[in-house]
Write a structure and sequence with these properties.
single chain; 171 residues; alpha/beta; Alpha/beta knot; two-stranded antiparallel sheet; 7 strands; 20% strand; globular; binds S-adenosylmethionine
């Protein structure tokens, strides 16, 4: 399985890539991982990644262009790793709740691209055009999607066959 996270804070993902069963599985090549920062795809001097929402609304959202390019780069990496169709998930308070059944379903996909929102979320046009599903981790709101994305990753990775055999995975 290949996983890419699109995040303004890639270093946070050391928590899942460098510790425990997820690290062992990563070292064994059971999953591949890349955390990609939309800021690296900005072209202005300030490396700006936020803007007012298209069509109006409160606060700021993540700009669409850097996210589109980060997504394209993630799809390309996964294609090179043999994934024909990457499944794009946006962690969002508006999404359907993460359940064990959802974790099982996601663990059977060859490629996941996980979008971590910040500010008031991501540009709605990106959700409409590129996101396959929105998943919520609970009925509360955090300041960003990174911790929630790692919760989803942990729930999925422990279900991969090697992990499941060693840790007698159940509900
Ligand atoms: C401050 S929140 C955005 C809140 C915004 N008012 C909304 O309702 O989407 C910033 C980001 O954190 C993530 N997030 C926060 N709470 C979440 C939850 N319960 N489930 C999934 N993602 C969440 C999302 O990626 C969201 O874009």
């Amino acid at each position: 399985m290949q996983i890419d996270a699109i995040t303004l804070f890639p270093d946070m993902f050391a928590s899942i890539a460098r510790f425990g069963i997820s690290q062992r599985a990563l070292d064994l090549g059971l999953w591949g991982f890349h955390a990609r920062n939309p800021r690296d795809f900005t072209v202005d001097n300030y490396h700006r990644v936020d803007d007012r929402p298209y069509g109006g609304g409160p606060g700021m959202v993540m700009l669409i262009e850097p996210l589109q390019q980060a997504l394209a780069a993630a799809r390309q990496r996964q294609q090179q790793a043999g994934v024909a169709n990457s499944h794009v998930v946006y962690l969002s308070p508006q999404g359907r709740g993460l359940t064990h059944a959802k974790a099982v379903e996601l663990s059977q996909r060859p490629g996941l691209i996980l979008l971590c929102g910040r500010y008031e979320g991501i540009d709605e046009r990106l959700i409409q055009s590129q996101v396959d599903e929105e998943v919520s981790i609970g009925d509360y709101v955090l300041s960003g999607g990174e911790l929630l994305t790692m919760v989803l990753m942990d729930a999925v990775i422990r279900l991969l066959p090697w992990c499941a055999q060693r840790y007698s995975v159940g509900l």
